[in-house]
Amino acid sequence: MRLKISAIPAILACVLLASCSAPRERAVANGTNPVFSPDGSRIAFQRLDGDVFKIGVVNLAGGAVEWVEEGPGNAAYPAWTPDGALAYMWGNDAGTAREAWKKGSQSGYGLRIREPDGTKRDLTRGRCRDYTPCVSPDGRAVWFVTTRGVESESASFSKAAATRIARLNLDWAKASHRGTEARSSGHDGQVLDLNHPEAQSRGEAGSHAATEGAKRDVEIVLDAPNGSNSGYVQPAVSPDGSMLVWGQMDSFFDGWRICGKRMDDMAPKEVAAKPPCPVTPSSLTALSPRWHPNGRMICFTGFHAGDDGWGVWVEDVYTGKVRRLCTGETPCFSPDGGSIAYDRDGMIFVRPFGKGDIPNETLPDAREEDAPERVAWGCEACERQDQPAARDLVANDSRFVFGDDTTVFIRAKVSPGDGARQFLTAAYAEHPRALQLYASGGQMWFVSFDHAGKFFAAKAPVPNGGDVRVLAVRTPTRLLLSLDGGSPAVVHTGGAIPLDTPQRLNVGAGAAAVEIGTGWPRELPKPPTREDLFK
Amino acid sequence: MSTSDTNENTNPRHCVKTLGAALSMALAPIAPLVAAATLHAGEPPAPRRDFEVVALVDSLDFAKDFDIETPTGTVQVLEHVMLTHPTDIWWRDKGGGRMRYPSECEAWQVSEAPFDPKRLPSEDIYGWLRLESPRADFWPLIREECSRRGLRFGIHTTLEENHWYSPLSSNWTLAHPEYWSRTRHGEPWMGCCSIFHDEVIAHKLEMLDERLAMKPEAIMLDFWRNGSWSFAREYSAPALAEWGRMHPGEPAPAHTDPRWQAMVGGRFADYLRAFSAKCRAAGVRFVVGLPGIDDRDDAALRARIGDFGWRRLAKEGVFDAVYVLSVAMDRADPFGSTERIYRGVREACGQTDVYFPLAAYNMEKCGIAEYARLAGITEDEAAARLLGLARDCGGRGVVLECVDFGNYKPAVCGEIGKF
Question: CB B165 to CB A252 under 8 A?
Fold first, then answer.
């Protein structure tokens, strides 16, 4: 059937209406990553122009654009300071990767600041990526993500985080660099050098190489937990400065989710004791958060199954309710909270944000940790039975049917002894070694497979001494291994092999007591919830 | 500072796609430009040999050895690969989602971390390479240099627009969450897209057009490098709708259910047929590289991908050649069991050319070193026996999966040269 020409405008109008629930949006510039200036009169943004990402500021009243950085080099992720300066990522990586690698080049992506008078200074540099800066409301610190100190080839199963969250004391940085202007073509300005040997010898935080002393003004504040290969992006400090939220990917088989933490809990000891907690529902892919000035809502880029693409979402972090406003990405509230800017298809839009946009939807928010413990089977004195290493304890027993959506745990007391020792092997038709617990090479190993038969292992050093209490957990997405009640090693699998057809369970010599069950083991701490964070 | 603004849409995130019935589109005559370019390539292709040695080359793996972002470095890679005495070189066109040529479909600028915040960066030298940028557009050079050396030039591409995990997803995948793959429990994963969306198939075939325009002798689709995609990730909305049509009222089963395997396998086979049709129309051979082959039921391949009936498709003539990348041999009888597997594959493939593995790496426990260890012989002796087996079992050649800097030992290269 052919469409009538006269129908086309109406269809276009419908498409426009469908793409955004509030049709009052207006385009203000070509670009992405918009952020309102402190007085709300301008928007800073980035634009890909040919081969170069450049940063501009559009005046909302007249539409004129002033270019802050327009090459050579790439500039992205603008963030305003309260006094009208702009911090952003900048780098001019002109050579080849091997040239830079061989000569130890510092030409990565660092942070640069451009003062209201046009003066520019490089804040950081290095063969790394410092990006998605956010300036604290008091203007005294810039928060950003960085690849500093991560292991090489971080995008692999076996290595640690791909990015970390860092903080730079901006007061001090500004004072230290007063009068030192960055050259536009290179990194020759005086900068904070986190790759300085002194900084590296401390293992994590940076130092100010250009000044004497080791004042610790830049620090890595959030790193991946034990064994995880997490990544972080776009930290955002709450308007009262008490809270930090950011996008987090727990593993390469997980999606982005916004997590948060109290600033009070950012000290290294607190970070370990109080891990970040998810802020957005588990069923929502979410990243790039920004705060509403009321400190109660955030906006972010999100996707929920069934959506037609990335959307502009808002959440009331106290209730957990969310709302998808329209198709778009990287939203940002205006300083008065009455407008929201975002980008879509390379165009920046601004639309009012009002009562009709208040989050009102509750999305599924499942937690693997909420499934109650249920012991399916156990032996209290396994070691006293005859020929324990060879016996078959279970065959075709329905108690051992564990779907790929079931959390399974093994609780055992074992005697690692010296050398390799197999404590438990569960054979299923789906995989002959579907669950294994053994000691080898001074490590305790808990092994399983994902739904495609790919091997995954959580391992931890065997403590010195005699018996060891082992808690091994296979959730639908992770393997956890805790020894003697310690913090568990965690490996993300992204999917578990379904264990529908049990064939044999071998409990080996050295396993003194074994329990197998489903649900979250009672002794394993549960991570904090959004409700814990936003009381 | 300048004050200007323009109205062009300069965002590369959204490569404009022609949507619709991708499969039927693919089977229609393809763009005449592609075919013309292919048929009128400058140099005549090197003649085929009686027994071919195909080297799979991923230039990224040479990043610390040569400056692969320069023409000189590219030729150095080629020269190094020549030590293995290849007759054919299949050059990798992408590493994960990052292309190794300037692509219209996968614009390079946002391939580079951190310009899309959804993409986590790779560190070390590999994360800084810009092999997809215009400054590293060496494909005509590679083709020319292969021709000068009497080598046939092909493209080695991967099954998924991802390498293993989500940081290496393609730009297109990151830009289109609505097509993301899902597990049975419904979780979308940004690592790959579901083939039950016509738009996904259209995008894959659009990228194939770009490769065909490079005038290769062949394109090899690599099933070992599957980007963690499998039938277990195909629980997307259109797949579930299809399941509902076929099995009204019945919830979707586990991916191991034969009916699920048949449904997804059928869709996947259609994609492979469309891929083949495009290659044929452009005069380019279509090759598949299959890991985990055995003489029973290819359990390893089924676990890795799913059951798509590759033997049936081979008989049907969908493929011009099958590269066996690894075999699940009997470790008690390595060469005997390998011969049985080879003969089974040869039998299954009918008129389709077959190539057998000669792998320096031992990732699937079936490399040259593993045969040598199990049989108590040297690696060059093992290589010689594998070469002989490949020939005696009707193989058209062997495939070196893959040639990296110095991974094929000189003695092994010597055996290849003698052969």
Answer: yes
